[in-house]
């Protein structure tokens, strides 16, 4: 989806993302893009199979060049996490160890707290096919796992990074219902405007004998008004609707002038327009 | 990451995902995989550029065959949403319309409520390069947008679907801190076992004149015990630690028997072991 605003400040802070022996440059690039989407920038790679730098990674990063340019490559995982204070390992499998297992929401809140406290943190992601080894998980403080469909739990590495990056972004938001833009605030029309619409429409309908038989008219008007007031129209919307009524009214009255009684007698007007009683 | 458990029930319910004129089969496949990861199964496609079926889509779906096999293809968006009661449009751009804009969290809660009430819902995703047109957005009830980095807001279509699918899954969870598996509950050792470790270690250190000068011994013991009790060891861990102390103790006492005073006098014992006072 389009929508990047290059005049905005580029967010680039938070935990380091550490990929252990990734195989495909495309995946590394998509990881970089996912990080950039949600304000992360520090990407570390342990033994990329196809070497580094990688043109495939840069292409797949879709202009997340600041992440690609800053990549650090290591031979050993121990070196890649040497300067960090706290590390999560991501895994979809139960490990027979004693490390606490956290949801992405909990883990992101922990990472945010540590970030605020000035600690350096990181998140480990394993190989495309085999994930992290037990020895690699053992280097982490805690485990994070995703609430996936149990029968289809295998997440692509870039998607796993995306989810953690997204939760990282959310962990810094006070209101999870907040949106970056919204529709313009709509002021409902005054009741004078609304009643003007009612009367305009009812007059046009009356001219066609829509309210038939006369004994049912009060109930039909009531239902029609309920339909028209269930949503609070704005002044502008009322103007549009009155324009529509006026337009229909002019045309129909010319046609109906010589034939109004026949049309009314067969009840066509009510059925074709949708009987207000059933609304 | 590995971890699929094919004996588990396959989740396949919730809103339809509707892709409007997607260009690449690979993206459609990654969308199917993301849906399967989080329990969605109903994929509808309007005018896929490269036709349907697509072998590239199937390959990229990584065995989400139940989603690929169930794909419905439409020529017009109007037909693709004809049977739905409520539709979201995803967009990263402000639209000059009057539709409410929701966060993924809010939108997923709404979709879950409507699902429980028996309504049929869907989420629209636009073209890779240009997203949805204003006319297409106008067919939706509300807009959903992602809390992205303002300076890098362009989300890949499969990643956008992944985030909505993930939030859909979370909207059905009572506890967002819940995890599908966790470490085995650890019972802390009894204080008898813990004090046994303290005394075992302190005896071995005493034999090497570690607590030097004698006036500092109480403070050094206190610090050492604080280090060893900050985390609640289990019985098994205490056994492991006492085995380590025993092993070091045997070796060192043989070596130290003739030389213990020299070593102690230079303070090597304290520095090399990490002085307990600084812990």
UniProtKB/TrEMBL annotation, chains A, B:
Residues 16-166 form the tRNA/rRNA methyltransferase SpoU type domain. Homodimer. SUPFAM superfamilies: alpha/beta knot. PANTHER family: TRNA/RRNA METHYLTRANSFERASE, TRNA_RRNA METHYLTRANSFERASE SPOU TYPE DOMAIN-CONTAINING PROTEIN. Keywords: Cytoplasm, Methyltransferase, S-adenosyl-L-methionine, Transferase, tRNA processing. It is an enzyme of class 2 (transferase). Its EC number is 2.1.1.200. It comes from Peteryoungia desertarenae. It catalyses: cytidine(32) in tRNA + S-adenosyl-L-methionine = 2'-O-methylcytidine(32) in tRNA + S-adenosyl-L-homocysteine + H(+); uridine(32) in tRNA + S-adenosyl-L-methionine = 2'-O-methyluridine(32) in tRNA + S-adenosyl-L-homocysteine + H(+). This is tRNA (cytidine/uridine-2'-O-)-methyltransferase TrmJ. The keyword Transferase applies.
């Amino acid at each position: 989806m389009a929508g990047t605003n290059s005049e905005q400040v580029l967010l680039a802070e938070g935990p380091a993302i550490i990929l252990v022996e990734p195989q495909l440059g495309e995946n590394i690039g998509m990881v970089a893009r996912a990080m950039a989407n949600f304000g992360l920038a520090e990407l570390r790679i342990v033994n990329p199979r196809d070497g580094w730098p990688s043109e495939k990674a840069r292409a797949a990063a879709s202009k997340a060049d600041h992440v690609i340019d800053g990549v650090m490559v290591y031979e050993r995982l121990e070196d890649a996490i040497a300067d960090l204070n706290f590390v999560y390992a991501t895994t979809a499998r139960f490990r027979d160890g004693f490390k606490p297992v956290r949801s992405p929401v909990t883990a992101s809140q922990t990472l945010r707290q540590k970030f605020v406290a000035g600690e350096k943190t990181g998140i480990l992601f394993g190989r495309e096919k085999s994930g992290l080894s037990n020895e690699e998980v053992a280097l982490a403080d805690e485990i994070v796992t995703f609430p996936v469909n149990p029968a289809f739990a295998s997440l692509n590495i870039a998607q796993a990074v995306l989810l953690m990056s997204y939760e990282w972004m959310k962990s810094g938001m006070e209101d999870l219902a907040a949106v970056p833009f919204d529709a313009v605030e709509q002021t409902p029309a005054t009741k004078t405007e609304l009643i003007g619409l009612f009367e305009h429409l009812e007059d046009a309908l009356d001219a066609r004998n829509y309210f038939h038989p006369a004994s049912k008219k009060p109930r039909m008007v009531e239902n029609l008004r309920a339909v028209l007031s269930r949503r609070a129209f704005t002044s502008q919307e009322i103007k549009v609707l009155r324009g529509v009524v006026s337009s229909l009214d002019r045309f129909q009255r010319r046609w109906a002038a010589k034939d109004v009684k026949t049309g009314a007698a067969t009840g066509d007007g009510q059925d074709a327009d949708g009987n207000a009683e059933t609304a």
